[in-house]
From TrEMBL:
<keyword id="KW-0560">Oxidoreductase</keyword>
<comment type="function">
    <text>Catalyzes the conversion of 4-hydroxyphenylpyruvic acid to homogentisic acid, one of the steps in tyrosine catabolism.</text>
</comment>
<feature type="domain" description="VOC">
    <location>
        <begin position="7"/>
        <end position="175"/>
    </location>
</feature>
<feature type="binding site">
    <location>
        <position position="314"/>
    </location>
    <ligand>
        <name>Fe cation</name>
    </ligand>
</feature>
<feature type="binding site">
    <location>
        <position position="210"/>
    </location>
    <ligand>
        <name>Fe cation</name>
    </ligand>
</feature>
<dbReference type="Pfam" id="PF00903">
    <property type="entry name" value="Glyoxalase"/>
</dbReference>
<dbReference type="InterPro" id="IPR004360">
    <property type="entry name" value="Glyas_Fos-R_dOase_dom"/>
</dbReference>
<dbReference type="InterPro" id="IPR041735">
    <property type="entry name" value="4OHPhenylPyrv_dOase_C"/>
</dbReference>
<comment type="similarity">
    <text>Belongs to the 4HPPD family.</text>
</comment>
<dbReference type="GO" id="GO:0003868">
    <property type="term" value="F:4-hydroxyphenylpyruvate dioxygenase activity"/>
</dbReference>
<protein>
    <recommendedName>
        <fullName>4-hydroxyphenylpyruvate dioxygenase</fullName>
    </recommendedName>
</protein>
<dbReference type="GO" id="GO:0009072">
    <property type="term" value="P:aromatic amino acid metabolic process"/>
</dbReference>
<keyword id="KW-0479">Metal-binding</keyword>
<keyword id="KW-0677">Repeat</keyword>
<dbReference type="InterPro" id="IPR005956">
    <property type="entry name" value="4OHPhenylPyrv_dOase"/>
</dbReference>
<keyword id="KW-0408">Iron</keyword>
<dbReference type="InterPro" id="IPR037523">
    <property type="entry name" value="VOC_core"/>
</dbReference>
Amino acid sequence: MAAYLKRVHHISLHVSHAGSVVHDLVSKLKFDLFAARITDDARQFACRKGAAVFVVNERPRPRPHAGHPTLNGEETLRLGDKRYSHQHHHHHDDATTTGGCLYDVHSPYAVDTACNVCFEVRDVERSFRSLRDQGCDLLVPPTVVRDGDDGGGGAVTYTVVRSVVGNVRHTLLDKSGYEGHFLPGFKDIPNPGTEGGDADDPCPVTHFDHITYACQKKTSSHVMQWYARCFGFQRFFLESNEDEGEGYVLTGEDIGLRLTAMSYWKCSEAGMKLSFMDKKEPDCKFVMAESLPGQGSNQIDTFLKQHGGPGIQHIGLHTNDIVSTARTMAEAGVQFFSPPPTYYTEVDKCQEIAAAGHSPKSLAQHGILLDTDLRQGAHDQTTPNTDRRYLLQVFTKPIFTEETFFLELIERQGASGFGEGNIRALWRSVQSYMEKEKEESLWRRQCSERHQ
Ligand SMILES: O=C(O)C(=O)Cc1ccc(O)cc1
Ligand SMILES: [Fe+2]
């Protein structure tokens, strides 16, 4: 029996300098810093835009004078062998918590990384048992956290399970008995006049649209099976003639990509109506991306190498107005990938952009791509513009030091998948950026050698 997921609660980042990442989230990406937990050995910051919440965790710095090598939380648990001794709930009072990162476990990878997709569940103890029975690796047994004396908002229970994708974990938490603002242990940070839902917000980011994993070659079906078995995820096809076993395969001179997509919310309890689920809340899709054999260097392999293994390659942030969002973020310093300029001068693409009510110029300014969903009879000239289904996307440049994790803005007008034209153009714009970077670093190296 799978564990039943209610919704994505937050996604956590594990970084070496939380301050600068939080600064970027707030000043460039227009998130609100609304809660923080700062203790002697942990710094955790929660930032929100709409329903999209990132928790930025600072990885502990090695302590030079410690009597024995510093272990991260994960190892400490393993050594303590507490993982399967769950007979009793572990009770934490935040005031006495010394175990560093709360609700999470530090990443074993050395680089900055997005590595925990935290879900709200109905029953943590039951989820824990079902995952343990499936043979999963539970990194934290069901644990109760209460607000300190001043809080009094109640308690939250959580457990952490390791996924089969690199360093990706899932915290499962139940906050149904909690009345505080975010989570016990976190202090609210009041934000004057930013409670969200503002009608003239220039950055109307609403929620996490999808999470894309970079996977090793030929592993997507294994990943899919794990999520289906453990969480009841269901496969959905990105293309009408997508092969069940092969996934959505994009090949060409400059692309060799296999995509497989899955979603969770309709299906976590097969055939049952889930009364606890807010049907109006959009789901977050999961996409697995792997490169095809025989390809030259590409963005998936670069991610795997620089990240140190599989993981979250990018996260799609849904916005109600991508042009305004991209403009506002660009003005604040966010850099976006652009397709070749010819993208916006091609006659067919220009017509497609105009038919969607946009101007090629305003899309070109920030490298925004548009893809019309052709399956919906969009070719039909009698179809009014409002019935056309299309989507707009743009990728940011990598947000950490390594060429690993980045964000995407996506505006959906009726189109639920990912357009082939957009995927090819996005892939190409990242490839040409990477090739330019490589050339430049080669050139810099030659220059410095010449000057020696
Ligand atoms: O199109 C999207 O948003 C995807 O998520 C598909 C995708 C996955 C990996 C890439 O490197 C490029 C595109
Ligand atoms: Fe994406």
